[in-house]
Amino acid sequence: MTRNLIDFVDITHKEFDELYRLCADIMKKPDKYKNVCVGKVLANLFYEPSTRTNLSFRTAMYKLGGSVIGFSDPGSSSVAKGESLKDTIVMMSNYADLIVIRNPMEGAARAASLYSRVPVINAGDGGHLHPTQTLADLTTIRMHTGGIKNLNVGICGDLMNGRTVHSLIKALSGFPDIRFYFISPRELKIPDYIRYFLDSNKQKYIEITSLEATVSSLDVLYMTRIQRERFDSESEYERHRHAYILTSGKLSDAKSSLLIMHPLPRVDEISVDVDNDPRALYFAQARYGMYIRMALIMTMLKNAPAEPRETEVGGAACVNPRCVSMFEKYLPNLTYEREGRVFCEYCDKEI
Amino acid sequence: MTRNLIDFVDITHKEFDELYRLCADIMKKPDKYKNVCVGKVLANLFYEPSTRTNLSFRTAMYKLGGSVIGFSDPGSSSVAKGESLKDTIVMMSNYADLIVIRNPMEGAARAASLYSRVPVINAGDGGHLHPTQTLADLTTIRMHTGGIKNLNVGICGDLMNGRTVHSLIKALSGFPDIRFYFISPRELKIPDYIRYFLDSNKQKYIEITSLEATVSSLDVLYMTRIQRERFDSESEYERHRHAYILTSGKLSDAKSSLLIMHPLPRVDEISVDVDNDPRALYFAQARYGMYIRMALIMTMLKNAPAEPRETEVGGAACVNPRCVSMFEKYLPNLTYEREGRVFCEYCDKEI
Amino acid sequence: MTRNLIDFVDITHKEFDELYRLCADIMKKPDKYKNVCVGKVLANLFYEPSTRTNLSFRTAMYKLGGSVIGFSDPGSSSVAKGESLKDTIVMMSNYADLIVIRNPMEGAARAASLYSRVPVINAGDGGHLHPTQTLADLTTIRMHTGGIKNLNVGICGDLMNGRTVHSLIKALSGFPDIRFYFISPRELKIPDYIRYFLDSNKQKYIEITSLEATVSSLDVLYMTRIQRERFDSESEYERHRHAYILTSGKLSDAKSSLLIMHPLPRVDEISVDVDNDPRALYFAQARYGMYIRMALIMTMLKNAPAEPRETEVGGAACVNPRCVSMFEKYLPNLTYEREGRVFCEYCDKEI
Question: What ipTM was predicted for this assembly?
Fold first, then answer.
């Protein structure tokens, strides 16, 4: 498997299949795995708080018999303050066997991988990528459908912002006979680059505004939060939000096999009366996320520690103000070409 | 044993006896137990800081070979902020095998137990209950008396406030031939509901104001802190405090078998010159507290994870402004009747 | 070995030799040691943040199969706030098998050792001592020279302040044929007490201001940071700093066997272009520091828990305003004599 997990596309279907089988076996026989990481150390570097992801990785490592070091927000650590990302990563990879990094700068995980002596897992780099959330989502769907194919997948809420949704869309497009129903207010439709991606992959999808009108056709309903900040006015926001809150009432015509998912934490986009519905899987989804991370950690640790790859300086500088290369000046410019266009290898923005 | 430990009354004398024997064996042969919780995870959820209780549970779990996740104060966790208690508990019980919760809302531990898939231990819910402190206190007394019976128990300081003292009084009343000496300024005497409890249990007790006049008759002296805030004026406070500070001088007539106890941390209510007195047990008390928690964790983990019990909505709403049901609106009203009066099942206040 | 490690002089050359051999074996066969501390608990008490030292000890304990409790800065702990150092130490030594303490008060580690039931390791007490950093430094030198003798050791930067440097100078003076090159601006030369120490030990050393003129003669170059605060004016600072920044350019005439060291974290006193130089050992130095701490922990844990030694009150009170005895009033006065002069046993200042 890939040395580092920066982007979900780093994982092939075959590799996902192996991770999934390992995950399923861990869930069946946890005792068999409770000592496999004894003596191993995970560095959990959270430059911004994300309790769920942080706890999910911690618990995963603990259940494998390993240990965890790191920090859970910059304030709590003099490492995170002042010091360059490079120096922190080099030091941490001196201590740990595996690094998990969450950082608000886009491309931070890729940058970290340039200097780490051990594998790096991206636990979220700004609005850019969050591959292990996608891993948890696919695991949940497969666990409850017996195979990711021939599904009507509804995704509801804010489809414009939120890497979770975009990453899930890209990942699901790789599976056979997936039909997307994008349910959102006009203000929050999927962005052009996703539409471009879907069209160039001949992916079937429709965009609608009504959740109620759509729910009965769905096999999967993935709910996301609509944030106040996204609207020009409070009234705009109030006008929309109720239409995109899932209640047990709106589920009356839904299939009995529907999977109701949510990345959590929820605010009020799913009302508590749905929690007791057997189709509500969002809490189980978090549990699957922890088990698939156990499988991921085991698999990544098989990659023997190796000096980071040589990087050739060169190419154009990135122009994205949120790109890690804007903040960490010693970073080499890294670019790649696709269809004659040039992109930054850190943040994937076109240059 | 009870699935959850919310209130010390959940533990029968027989169960305390079993916990005590296990505790004593752990102290004798710690190596025998150092791997019994390998692969198990304790969620230590501290919504307000309490370093001692927090460390005591952590260390207990570590000495059993288990792991610990959680947070030590709300500020440090996005889970504790914003999210409902229910969602946090459901998520945590996805990850952990046992939950320990400390929360300023009265009844929070009971509320948590409604949604947890794993056993819940109350590590303090506001001014309401703190059963594992009582467990530590009884363990200390038994460890040094060979049996909790026929004892003159002095409790000194602020007897009006402080759940530690009230819980200890209730618990000790269940043992044979206990005689209480309540030593406090008039302003800080035991509250009426405790007096009512003692009288209806025909429990022997006397209330006095002088520590010096009483100490010679005692088998146990339980010291507590008198807080400035409790008095109308600084002068009021100054007038009293010295009378309730234990010094080696005041111990001159005390029994050689006296047990001097304190829940810690102390400020100056016990002067340092007492620390070297062999009768000073307050530091040992903390150590016993850790060992009895080891026994408790082992015992609770035998309760296989089970879906939480069904709760029937209904009954009257609680009126206690500090009750968890005031803050977490989705909670069902839960009540119980005693002697024709109705009480809230969360905070035990009469409705 | 000594029960506590307060000062590097507590370790004899023979003991350092044993620690070093154990460290080398751990690096060769880590799996052999991954369970030696199962069931053991390290209390990591950091009264001021020091992520590197903190993580180094944590990781060391984890790699030995042990657990860690404690706090990483006073704010995060009610123990560190309000409570006396004595009470915190007594409580912690109730829970843990070994205490590591970092505290801004000079002599705090010595004071802690008076009340701890378990061994105490000094991880830095204000500007006073930091023996495990010196341990890491010597380990690095020996690892790359095959024996600490006949070396030209350059120490560059702020030589007036900084216990790391002073402790290293004292320690190296104990080895054969060491010649020091003290490279610093006049404002930041070694203090008189170090000069007195060197002269009375007939230790060879020269003081110069130019790094470039010296580097070619060196076997070891130990870089330290020059802090803005140390100079009267910004211009003074700017005038100096560049002369004491190590660049690959300045290394052109250096020996191919030169060891470039730094205690970390660095700011800009070593430019990043030096990082890829095979002679740059400062990151490796941190790794060796973690392994030698593993050896130290194993060795200290062999010291069976024992009640702290009796201390005889008496002697004169210390006058150093940063001495722990100024803040913790219950501490006995402890002094020792040397050459007819009297020193405080906590902070080693003359009385």
Answer: 0.91
